[in-house]
Design a protein that fits this description.
With 305 residues, this protein is an alpha/beta fold. It is built from 11 helices and 11 strands. Strand 10 (283-288) and strand 11 (297-303) form a beta hairpin. Helix 4 packs across helix 7. Bound molecules: S-adenosylmethionine. S-adenosylmethionine binds at residues 11-12, 17, 66, 70, 107-110, 113-114, 129-131, 134, 153, 168-171, 174-175, 180, 184.
Length: 305
């Protein structure tokens, strides 16, 4: 059966991404809320991270607003507690070790779980994410000073020469628009040294994961330390041939606050992604299964020639 239906199983490791419904409709930039922990670089400009610095910008450089689940401070703060099982990252860590990566760019780093695991191993990591609140959560974690955090999409990246670029937990699917996706692949290639690797996963559309994204299968109450019980569930809004939209609802028992977050994920099949990688100048070395989610994920191991 695989892992049970959780926030991660839909939004991340096993499931979708989200944007704040109201914020999107009203055009309010959720990403611009909140003060930076440390301000380096001009607001809105690409920050050039210094080694060991927590790089935050007053504004994130993004083409599009972050999903609320990642961009709302209250939701970003409970993200890891709702998604504690990160065995999905083991295969990425293993690969980083096997190729001897010493410099890694983690695109869509979210709350920084993978970037910090790499940094603990002495790897020089840049963690990039457009969701201000998630980058703030990442930057406040123990060991965060070892990672260079960039808040923005790939247009915010400084010049890099890394051995490995990763997009863990289905970040690729959160990049919905074709031009964003092309830009992301092009930036990943530009950031890699010749011979470097791009590794990411995307749910296999043939597994039709969205068919189990419903309230009955997902509803649960999580006791979050310092926050209290949080009830959460997902409702499927629309499943089209390529795009799947769903809504997460969170109810905080402590004060009755109820937050919703709508997300759309792009489902691409193997041939489409292989063609996109080839068009972006990558050689596809292998398309694997995810060991923790057999039959459900396409894991691409591509190289810059
Ligand atoms: C499911 S989360 C995964 C987070 C992290 N990789 C992990 O393993 O915990 C998806 C992340 O993709 C980010 N994201 C969405 N659009 C993006 C884009 N265009 N470029 C980079 N990251 C993006 C979101 O902000 C979110 O943090």
């Amino acid at each position: 059966m695989g892992r049970r239906l959780t926030l991660a199983s839909i939004l991340g490791a096993a499931g979708p991404a989200t944007r704040v419904d109201g914020a999107v409709r009203e055009g309010r930039p959720a990403l611009l809320r909140g003060a930076p922990r440390a301000h380096r670089g001009r607001a809105g400009a690409a920050a050039v991270p210094q080694s060991g610095a927590v790089v935050t910008q007053r504004r994130c450089t993004v083409a599009r607003m972050a999903d609320e689940i990642f961009g709302h401070p209250r939701l970003a703060a409970i993200h890891d507690a709702l998604d504690p099982d990160r065995t999905d990252l083991d295969a990425y860590l293993d690969l980083a070790g096997r190729i001897g990566a010493t410099r890694v760019l983690d695109i869509g780093c979210g709350t920084g779980v993978f970037a910090l695991l790499l940094a603990e191993r002495g790897i020089d990591v840049v963690g990039l994410d457009p969701a201000r609140a998630s980058v703030d959560v990442a930057g406040a974690k123990p060991g965060a000073e070892r990672v260079r955090w960039v808040c923005g999409d790939v247009t915010a990246l400084p010049p890099l020469q890394v051995d490995l670029v990763t997009m863990t937990a289905n970040v690729a699917q959160a990049i919905v628009a074709a031009d964003d996706w092309r830009r992301t692949l092009a930036a990943a290639r530009a950031a890699l040294r010749p011979g470097g690797y791009l590794v990411f996963e995307s749910r296999d559309p043939a597994a039709r994961a969205w068919e189990s994204w419903n309230r009955a299968a997902s509803r649960r109450v999580t006791e979050v330390r310092g926050v209290g019980p949080v009830e959460s569930w997902v409702d499927l809004v629309e499943a089209g041939p390529h795009l799947v939209t769903f809504r997460w609802t969170y109810v905080f028992a402590a004060d009755g606050d109820r937050l919703t977050s709508d997300s759309t994920l792009r489902f691409r099949d193997r041939r489409e992604i292989e063609a996109d990688l080839a068009a972006s100048g990558f050689t596809v070395q292998e398309v694997r299964d995810a060991p923790d989610r057999p039959g459900r994920e396409l894991v691409f191991v591509a190289r810059r020639p």
